[in-house]
TrEMBL record:
The keyword tRNA processing does not apply. The lineage of its organism: Bacteria, Pseudomonadati, Pseudomonadota, Alphaproteobacteria, Hyphomicrobiales. Residues 33-233 form the Fumarylacetoacetase-like C-terminal domain. Keywords: Hydrolase, Metal-binding, Transferase. One of its GO terms (molecular function) is fumarylpyruvate hydrolase activity. Signal peptide: none annotated. Its EC number is 3.7.1.20. SUPFAM superfamilies: FAH. This is Fumarylpyruvate hydrolase. It is an enzyme of class 3 (hydrolase). It comes from Ancylobacter amanitiformis.
């Protein structure tokens, strides 16, 4: 028998982070957020890396880094915050060592997200060989759209990935340019972690990342999936 919630915990438990679902009043509960690093060749090159020499690698954001209210509060302790627009992959069924040919069976849906990055703090961490959380996993660092079920749109393997800042196009790529495709990243990641229903994978960003300032308007999307509109405050 479960104890009443007000006596079972020594403090009030935090709420469950969620993403809305397009066209529904139901919510998608977030378990973990995995981000694929340098998954577009031109972005890897602009960050000073050779995309032909790297296996996929991952870092994490915290589930409660997700915000869906259309604003991004410019964070403290940084003067060089960058945008990175990405397609979100929402996992609906978990597993370990998932075969590539079965990977898409584990996808519930897709969305759009921004991997906001305190680039100056990330750069300092890289130089010192330290983890990236201070640059990647800060509060409100994952502005996101509603999710769209794969049952509605299928599994997009191509489609323009784009971002405008104050109306000027800054990022432009295509899902078919991803070095590691969605089935491959799911299969590889499930060999490192046990994927769970509720996990989100941020699938990487095309070239053209750059800094933002307060007052900027970010508008982006992935053709066939959706759009995201965010104001920097």
């Amino acid at each position: 028998m479960n104890a009443p919630i007000d006596t079972h915990y020594v403090i009030s438990p935090p709420g469950i982070p969620t993403l809305p679902v397009e066209g529904s009043d139901k919510l998608f509960p977030i378990h973990r957020i995995y981000c694929v690093g340098r998954n577009y060749a031109e972005h890897a090159i602009e960050m000073g890396h050779d995309p032909d020499k790297e296996p996929p690698f991952f870092f994490q954001k915290n589930p409660d880094n997700v915000i869906t209210n259309g604003t991004f509060p410019y964070p403290d302790k940084s003067s060089d915050v960058h945008y990175e627009l990405e397609m979100l992959v929402a996992i609906g069924k978990g597993g370990i060592n998932i075969p590539v040919e079965k990977a898409l069976e584990h996808v519930w849906g897709y969305g759009i997200g921004l991997d906001m990055t305190r680039r100056d703090l990330q750069g300092e961490a890289k130089k010192l060989g330290r983890p990236w959380e201070v640059g990647k996993a800060f509060e409100a660092s994952a502005p996101s759209s509603a999710l769209v079920p794969a049952a509605k749109i299928g599994h997009p393997a191509s489609g323009k990935v784009w971002l405008k800042v104050n109306g000027a196009l800054r990022q432009s790529g295509d899902l078919n340019q991803m070095i590691w495709k969605v089935p491959e990243m799911i299969s590889y990641l499930s060999g490192l972690f046990e994927l769970k229903a509720g996990d989100i994978i941020m699938s990487g960003t095309p070239a053209g990342v750059g800094a933002i300032v307060r007052g900027d308007h970010l508008e982006g999307g992935v053709d066939g999936v959706g759009t995201l509109d965010v104001k920097v405050v």
